[in-house]
Specification:
It contains three helices and 22 strands. The chain is mainly beta and 438 residues long. A 16-stranded antiparallel beta barrel has the order 3-5-6-7-8-9-10-12-13-14-15-18-19-20-21-22. The chain has a two-stranded antiparallel ribbon with strand order 16-17.
Length: 438
């Protein structure tokens, strides 16, 4: 018994010593190491030709303290111009992304891998393809500052190209943040950008939320680790009307989205609950009446630092009439769909999706991620037997950040689509990526 008590006492002392050391010495995460390297190379120009390191760090915190940053977003501009009092900085930057891939067992259109677009049945003349694109490349302007009246503020404008054979230029983001408010064209409040690891492909699998809207949002962050946000978003609906018995009506009420989040591990771990409420309107051309349907969605998402080098990710989404917010189903019109044998009637299809993944850092500049996602579409008596029933997507990748601004990566993806009539198809993709942020 004495030996047992002695052993327990020794273990208690070791645990207390470890806990005390942990409190005194906070953990350093790989992402922090890479961010520090980036800041050390930042070039700031002032009228006096001097750089204020503390001011630079403060302004960079404004840039990176954004819970809506995705793995597709560029780093802060390499060159920035700062006023002499260090209260305002203007940066012009860009993101060069070159992706090349080989599809086999079926070509997936367009340039992102989506189970929704897997061909059924397969075309024997389109089973393999080697392709490359600079899509997701673009330029951006950012204005960061501090002001007595409005506090910290951040304005951002980004535009980019779709690809060398689709060379149109489009606005990707255009918004301003100040005093907790965000106004402009930004990622939806229903989306949790941090709950996904980095991927080579421009998409995100089957079970993720992917949507940008013109919006007005207010977000409040508390020192306890809690954050809450809510906003109104200009709607865009994808309704499967046939213009003979049903017709989509223009939306006239904003979508309402909100979330509550708790974070820890210096913000590298969090759990979030998000909600969405929207109105979908269509006209029954047979009865000559308009109908309003209430769409909704709930999303639970998280990322957890199990150890400094290992992060685990998860997203689960369920709702009805929210399909245009989902990455895979947004490729078609699924917010309202027809009912077999009932012309003039549209239903709210329910959908459930999940995304799971993990990322491991072998070194701060070398890491790998494994992900799997699924989206299931539930329709009562679907009008289209060849309609989308579910999609699966799996991916594994490896990234090397040659410098904090130059990275290369490789990725293997596999996907499957199944329709209501039982027909199904699958496809494979091997992809490589070169990315430079400047």
């Amino acid at each position: 018994m004495k030996k047992l008590n002695l052993l327990i006492g020794c273990i208690s002392i070791l645990i207390s010593a470890y806990a005390s050391d942990t409190i005194k010495t906070p953990l350093i995460y790989p992402e922090q190491i890479q961010r520090q390297k980036l800041l050390e190379r930042q070039k700031i120009f002032t009228p006096g030709g001097e750089q204020e390191s503390d001011s630079v760090r403060t302004l960079m915190d404004i840039f990176y303290t954004d819970q809506f940053r995705t793995f597709r977003d560029p780093e802060a501009p390499y060159f920035m111009m700062m006023t002499k009092d260090a209260h305002l900085a203007l940066g012009v930057g860009g993101l060069l992304t070159i992706r090349g891939w080989e599809d086999w067992n079926g070509i997936v259109e367009p340039y992102v891998f989506s189970p929704y677009n897997i061909p059924i049945p397969k075309n024997p003349a389109a089973m393999k393809r080697l392709y490359a694109t600079p899509a997701n490349s673009g330029f951006f302007f950012t204005l960061l500052g501090r002001n007595t009246a409005v506090g910290d503020f951040f304005a951002y404008l980004e535009g980019g190209f779709r690809g060398y054979n689709r060379t149109d230029f489009r606005i990707r983001r255009a918004y301003i943040r100040m005093r907790g408010f965000t106004a402009g064209y930004a990622l939806s409040t229903f989306l949790d950008a941090g709950a996904m690891p980095r991927m080579c492909d421009g998409g995100g699998g089957a079970g993720t939320v992917d949507r940008a809207n013109i919006l007005v949002r207010y977000q409040k962050d508390f020192r306890s680790g809690w954050s809450v946000a809510g906003g109104l978003e200009f709607p865009s609906t994808y309704i499967a009307d046939n213009e003979t018995s049903t017709e989509a009506c223009a939306p006239y009420l904003p979508d309402v989205a909100a979330f509550g989040q708790y974070q820890w591990h210096q913000g590298f771990s969090h759990i979030r609950l998000s909600g969405l409420l929207r109105t979908l309107t269509y006209r029954d051309l047979i009865a000559g009446r308009n109908h309003n349907k209430t769409g909704w969605g709930l999303a639970l998402s998280t990322v957890v630092k199990v150890i400094p080098d290992l992060s685990v990710y998860g997203i689960a989404v369920y709702g009805a009439g929210h399909s245009s917010y989902m990455y895979d189903l947004s490729n078609g019109a699924h917010d309202l769909v027809g009912v077999e044998g009932e012309p003039g009637v549209l239903q709210l299809p329910r959908a459930f999706s999940y995304f799971v993944g993990c990322k491991y850092n072998f070194r701060p500049d070398l890491y790998s991620a494994v992900t799997f996602s699924q989206l299931r579409n539930y329709e009562d008596r679907p009008a289209d037997p060849a309609g989308y029933k579910y999609g699966l997507c799996g991916a594994v990748n490896l990234f090397w950040e040659v410098t904090p601004r130059l990275s290369v990566g490789g990725e293997y993806m596999i996907g499957e689509r199944k329709n209501f009539d039982g027909s199904h198809g699958s496809s494979n993709r091997l992809e490589a990526m070169l990315q430079l942020s400047f």
